[in-house]
Amino acid sequence: MSQHNIVPRLAISAALGGLLYGYDTAVINGATTVIKEHFHTGDAVLGLAVGSALITGCVGALLSGRIADKVGRVPMMKIAAVCFLVCGIGCAFAPNIEILVAFRVFGGFAAGVASVVAPMYITEISPTRQRGVLGSLQQLGIVLGIFVSLLVNALLVHVSGGAGTMMGPMMTWQWMFLCMCVPALIYGVLAFTIPESPRYLVAQGRMDEAAGVLAKIDDAEIDVNGQLAAIRASLSADRKPSFRDLIGSNGRLKPVVLAAIGFMILNQFTGINVIFYYSNSLWSAVGFSEKDSFTITAITSLINIAATVIGMTIIDRVGRKPMLLAGSVGMVVAQGGLTVLFGTAPMVGGSPVLGPVSGPLALVCANLFVVAFGVTWGTTSWVMLSEMFPNTMRGAGMAVGTATQWLSNFVVTVSFPVLLGINVGLVYGLFAFFAFVSFFFALKCMHETKGVALEDMRA
Length: 459
What we know:
Layout: H1 3-26, H2 32-38, H3 43-71, H4 73-92, H5 97-125, H6 131-135, H7 137-160, E1 166-167, E2 170-171, H8 172-178, H9 181-190, H10 198-203, H11 207-217, H12 224-234, H13 255-269, H14 272-277, H15 279-285, H16 290-318, H17 320-344, E3 347-348, E4 351-352, H18 358-387, H19 394-422, H20 424-445
Antiparallel strand pairs: 1-2, 3-4
Helix pairs in contact: 1-4, 1-5, 1-7, 1-9, 3-4, 3-5, 3-19, 4-5, 4-8, 4-9, 5-18, 5-19, 7-8, 7-16, 11-12, 13-18, 13-19, 13-20, 15-16, 16-18, 17-18, 17-20
């Protein structure tokens, strides 16, 4: 394989972790209603079933950055693949809601690991000029994983007639989880075919191996020894990377860490994952049929993929920060529209019912939000999080930033079913408010990383 195409192959292999992350977190979307009925659970327990993977994703993210600094990026990918496999099998055959939640923990942990290690690895093996487009493969993997899960769910429901009907020896919703085993196996196999990150190898003193990897992954004529020296100089000479690197001499978190935390909170508090975790239930609640709800969700997922691809094509030309600012404006407009539509809709049985005009308008606003987020914040988030930290603190910094994203995701996911029962318009009003805040946060707190070498990043 030539030098020119080896880096994309390595990046795609790592980004399969993102695909599994997306599949695992979204697959339950097609099963929420039937799980609630099948296991006779209430809204709070249903929220726990959906959100359990998210809280363990937070744990996986926190642990994986530090462990990846000790054992390497690639071994962590192998661990994640095994956990995804266990989750798929366990959830498919869970006899009760407690066991289902327990196996969702495995999937959540794996997704947490993948959400840190995959973008870290891609960033560390990518040439500076391609880092944006290759780094955004993680987000493309996530949105593809979401789409694949929704497509599998929709096809299974179409064939069987419903998520709660029998399909051979199992119910349809059980097959939804079991299908995750296929990409998990592929991910695990590919993890045995890719080299370790050269920056990890340098940190471990394995200079000859690092030189060999660097010579393979850059298609330009580079001074390998010079690049090795730059990487080594950017690492602490007296000790290995640790969470202590995140704290400044004043005893407080360094500014780059605080920026990452705020960045990932706002990434979730604008409400993007509500679209994909609860969209079937939401559209059904406001008057659409179950079949139409599945179709709407699948179309929205395709739009999300297209938006991500557009973002990938411009990120290395436009830059990260301008995309964030433009995206915040679009999200405010879209979520504001949903706030008005749901807030003014007539209530029937405690739920807003959209009319022949407001229904299509709500769909337009929801998909406009997906486009605004997908092209900008969705595409740039994983890229910037993996770029913005110096080499000495990338593992620990990404762990904290990604764990924050998971925790924020958990808060939104668990609270949404409860808030949905109170006032849908209020929920979208909150999302619009955080989208408004995100503009000023990006303006004041986020620094452009386009074209900056990893060895030149500052805390």
